[in-house]
Specification:
alpha+beta, four-stranded antiparallel beta sheet
């Protein structure tokens, strides 16, 4: 388990990462009531927010951005396992600090996270959605950075500011979106189907049939909700998954290529280089 804590103005930033060859439970509490946004990287860890006899589980956290209010009675429980590692960035502030936040940030919280500013329970979930590719790129950069010491903290501060800006912009965009909640859930389902079938993804026609949306609505609304076309998202997922497999020594370059559906190593290497700017053989393994 690695854990970095950063203080920026009245924000507390917690950056956690954990891998394990067996199932481990990591539980933490907050020292005071907080309004927070959590961003989950590629580890896809299991999360449960427990308070009293209530449990709010999150099964598929990969790429998830979730806002919430939690007081001192809430247990934040991560279950880390060999295939579900922890990658979490938490940005939090106490409600009492909202009026003092600079650059109008307090107003953003109050306007877009109303249910968290005036909570009705010990744990209240606010808006949640899967991150845009730009947000995922920032999260990947944070967990894959090579900086140390003061340079690392400076890098973290710049990336956290950008990540929070993207979050509120996406939140404002979603609040004016014409996509109905039932259709949005179907699009989340499509995203999950693609993520679980990187080696043999369904065609657009098959994907449309599985989620119950016609292909036109699928293509149009998927791009509006996630910021990229369906198969651009698939390509990003393939390359990110391959990068993680190689970096963690879970697969060789050839094995990673097969895992994400490439029979040709040269085609995989070219696609990887186009995505990241360096060849898969140049990854620094952890």
């Amino acid at each position: 388990m690695t854990r970095d804590v950063i203080n920026i103005n009245d924000f507390i930033i917690l950056i956690e990462e954990a891998n394990s060859d067996k199932v481990i439970i990591d539980t933490c509490k907050f020292d005071e009531p907080l309004i927070a946004v959590a961003f989950y990287g590629s580890g896809n860890v299991h999360l449960s927010m427990d308070h009293g006899d209530k449990k709010v589980p999150y099964e598929n956290t990969k790429g998830l951005a979730v806002s919430f209010y939690a007081d001192e009675t809430v247990d934040c429980v991560h279950t880390v396992s060999p295939d579900k590692a922890l990658q979490c960035i938490l940005i939090a502030t106490a409600p009492k600090n909202l009026e003092n936040l600079p650059n109008g940030e307090g107003e953003l919280f109050t306007d877009l996270l109303k249910e968290l500013v005036n909570p009705s329970d010990s744990y209240v979930e606010g808006p949640r959605f899967f991150m845009t590719p730009e947000m995922e790129h920032i999260v990947d950069n944070i967990f894959n950075n090579q900086y140390e010491g003061k340079a690392k903290m400076m890098f973290f501060r710049s990336q956290i500011t950008a990540l929070l800006s993207h979050f509120f912009w996406q939140l404002a965009t979603l609040s004016t979106s014409e996509i109905k909640s039932k259709e949005r859930e179907k699009l989340y389902q499509a995203k999950e189907i693609l993520s679980k079938n990187l080696d043999t993804p369904p065609s657009l026609t098959e994907l449309s049939r599985q989620i119950g949306l016609n292909t036109f609505k699928l293509k149009k609304d998927f791009k509006e909700l996630f910021g990229v076309p369906v198969f651009k998202y698939l390509q990003n997922e393939r390359m990110t998954t391959a990068h993680d497999l190689i970096r963690s020594k879970s697969a060789t370059v050839q094995e990673a290529a097969w895992h994400v559906g490439y029979d040709s190593l040269s085609s995989f290497s070219n696609a990887f280089t186009k995505k990241f700017g360096f060849r898969p053989s140049e990854i620094k393994v952890s």
